[in-house]
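Hey,

The postdoc asked me to send both predictions to you directly instead of through the lab channel. I've kept everything plain text so nothing gets mangled by the mail client. Protein one:
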Amino acid sequence: MTAAGTHETQIVADPDVPLVRITREFDASPSKVFRAHTDPQLVVQWLGPRSTTMRVEHYDCRTGGSYRYVHTSDGEDFGFRGCFHEVRPTELIVQTFTFEAMPDGVALERLVFEDLGGGRTRLVGTSLVDSFEGRDGFLASGMETGVREGYERLDDLLGTDHSTHLKQPAHDH
């Protein structure tokens, strides 16, 4: 754990394929961490860097669903969108991810929620893009700061008294 009481976020660029792997542990059950990734009322509270605000246009986290949200920083909007290809409660989310300012750059993302026991979860996310140049641009875009700060914000959310909302089952669609 870091001095701030949160776990270290590992961000690794694969040397052989244009992929970024993000690994992070949370002191919360897989069901809570999964819910925080699938409920738009929770996602908006933690996703992205502290310097941004987030507005969810739509967020239908189910197999075949889609999403669009906007981060605002210093009065400028940054749109993101994608589709959910596979969603398995407390286990897996497979989705696409597009930064709308670079619409040709679509990442295929996979989030695996691993139960470590004792109310702890390891989240392993991979983002596969179409080229090493695209991957390196992804890393150079400031995504590392957004991921690290977002997961610190998620730690805060998971540790609040409001975390009882995370115990509710995801809505069936």
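Protein two:
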Amino acid sequence: MSNKLKYLIVNAQNTKYMPTVAHNKQIGHNFKILEEFEAGLALNGAEVKSIKTGHISLKGAFVSLKNGQAYIKKMHIPIYSKASLQSKQNYHTDADRRLLLTKKEIAYLSNKTNEKGLTIVPISVYTTRRLIKVKIALVKGKKKFDKREDIKRKDINRSILRKLKSF
């Protein structure tokens, strides 16, 4: 096999590999996921490097729609340690960052969020090749009794799996 062919095979395998940089763990517990979308992020160079090193937090982050644009708010990206002084002076860690979605997706999401009880939250941040993507979801908040039902269901499934393992 030639080196060029090996290179093409390795690159084809790497395009499917999407390492998750950050994951919002409370989503499954606090919300019921109705639909998921993939969006790009408009970032500057220092933010990209900071995210790729794993310095990002989605805790409390949400998506807002205004003027035909989607923005992710309260997503914490600390300053990259090796960034220039100029970029460090004008940097805000919790600044609103624009999501790259199509006009159809934005119109659909704005119609859905006008319904009572629906909101948009980020689920995870991951890389595809050299791009940084965000998986966002249209969600509905769970009530306390819904959370209890989920916990009971998980406990029952766990006990069933334990009993099946013992056989």
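Summary for protein two, as requested: The chain has one domain: 14-142.

Thanks,
C.
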